[in-house]
Amino acid sequence: MERGMTADELLASLWRRKALVGAITVAVLAVGTAIVMTRPSMYEASVVVRVEPQRPGEEMVQRTVSELIEQRLLTVRQELLARPVLQKAIEEMGLYPDTVSEKGMEAAVAKMRKDLTVRVEGETAFELTYAHPDPEVAERVANRLPALFSEETLKLRQAQAARATDLFNDEMVQMGKAVSSWERKISQFKVDHLGELPEQMEMNMRGLERVSHELQTKSEELRVAEARRSDLARARNAVDSEAGRLEAAENGLTRALVNARTNWTEDHPEIKRMENELGAMTVQRKEAEGRLWAERAERARVGSLIGAIQKDIVDLQQKAEVYQSRLNNTPRWAHELAVMNRDYEVARTKYQSVVSRKVEAEIAQELEAKTSKSLFNVISPAGVPATPARPDRLTGMLVVLLVALGLGILTGAVLEMRDDSLRDGTEVRQRLTLPVLAVVPDMQGKTERRVLMPSQGGRNNVSSPSSLN
User: Fold this and answer.
1) Which of 33, 223, 385, 388 is placed for a possible disulfide with 41 were both Cys, Cβ 3.0 to 4.6 Å?
2) Using alpha carbons only, how large is the chain's radius of gyration in Å?
């Protein structure tokens, strides 16, 4: 049966069981002391690293790896405790050989994570602390980890910058193909609709005006030529009659001369006169025939001229129709060409933007390779620790002592609470409902006895045997 107890009762119970309490306390103290004293000493080496801002700034060169210092400090612990950095440190410096051989690299990395502590210091720095049983190893690892972290970060940032450059390069190739495709389409469109393009509209209008003016000129020339041909046609009959009349007169005069020669000699005056008239008549006939041939040639020339003018007029009318057709089709092709030019300008603008971004990405990649090496600056290198950081043996001993005393007291209290023995009259009166007639104390070898005797008024009187004689 369990029961409560006061502080005095607790002290009394502990005193009654002082041997057991002492034994438990001593045993726990001995075990705890052995544990505390046998724990290996761990030495801690700390290094402080400052994160340098990127130079030049974003306003001068657009970075492809844009991570603020605050973001870098928030992720530095996860990156430092990542497997690539820790595995490289374990392999390079031969850490945890037993763990690596027995449980593998993953277990060694997990153990090293427990020995590493990363704390952000201020706004631009962090502190790295490494614990190891060997102080020299602790110092060497603490100073090497920032360099390994910087190398891994450099590789990561360079890979990010290279991916950005490759992405812009691929996009530039695709956009270049699109721009070239639009250029070919526009060139072919201009070839297919040569002369009907909007930029050729003014030329077509001037050509139409010139052809119209030439048509007017040719029409006037045709009118003049046709008038000339009419005049030649009217004059042809007169010329033909004159040549025929002169030829008939010449023939008649020739016959008369032949008859006269049969009658007279050559010296006769009449023969001379008729010869002279015949010569003059022949001359007139030849002149008339010459004029007839000239008029015929003129008529032929005028006819050819009229034919040429008519042909020129037909050609000019065809040219005018071509120019007019071009002018009629120009608005239609202008709309289609405007749509194509708009899409081409959009593609070209995107291409130029991608080219510009690619150039910036290449510059940023070069700057990243040059500036990332100075991204982390060790401002306080680690030294060889002289005293172990843990365990704190004095504190451990105090804790062991308190635990030993607590277990001893707890054991005595539990045993007392589970003990049903009655040790004095007070416990008898508290725990029994019957009236107490007498209490026989533990004499512990003494001959003195006390007798509880009833007295007047219902009270009990206690007296010794000597007083009862």
Assistant:
1) 388
2) 68
Max CA separation in the chain (angstroms): 248
Q: Give exposure, 331-342, as e/b (b: 16+ Cβ within 10 Å).
A: eebbeebeeeee
Residues 25 and 405: beta-carbon distance below 8 Å: yes
Task: Name the nearest CA neighbour of 193 among 341, 338, 334.
Answer: 334
33 is written with which tokens?
A: 């002391």
Length of the chain: 469
Beta bridge partners of 48: 127, 380
CB 411 within 8 A of CB 23: no
Residues 280-287: contacts with CB under 8 Å, at least 24 apart: 281/246, 281/249, 281/250, 281/253, 282/250, 284/246, 285/243, 285/246, 285/247, 285/250
Residues in the chain with pLDDT values less than 50: 1-2, 56-61, 63-66, 69, 239, 450-469
Residue ranges of E strands in 345-443 = 376-380
Bridge-based pairing of strands 43-51 and 125-132 is: antiparallel
Q: pLDDT tens, 421-447?
A: 666 666 666 666 667 666 666 655 555
Angle of helix 18-38 versus helix 393-417 axis, rounded to 10: 150
**The pair of three-digit structure tokens given for residue 249, joined into one six-digit string:** 């007169």
Question: Domains of the chain (ranges plus CATH)?
Answer: 198-357 (1.10.287.1700), 434-469 (no CATH)
What pTM value is reported for the model? 0.45
pLDDT tens digit string along 304-330?
888 888 888 899 889 889 888 888 888
Provide the CA 106 distance to its chain's centre, in angstroms. 34
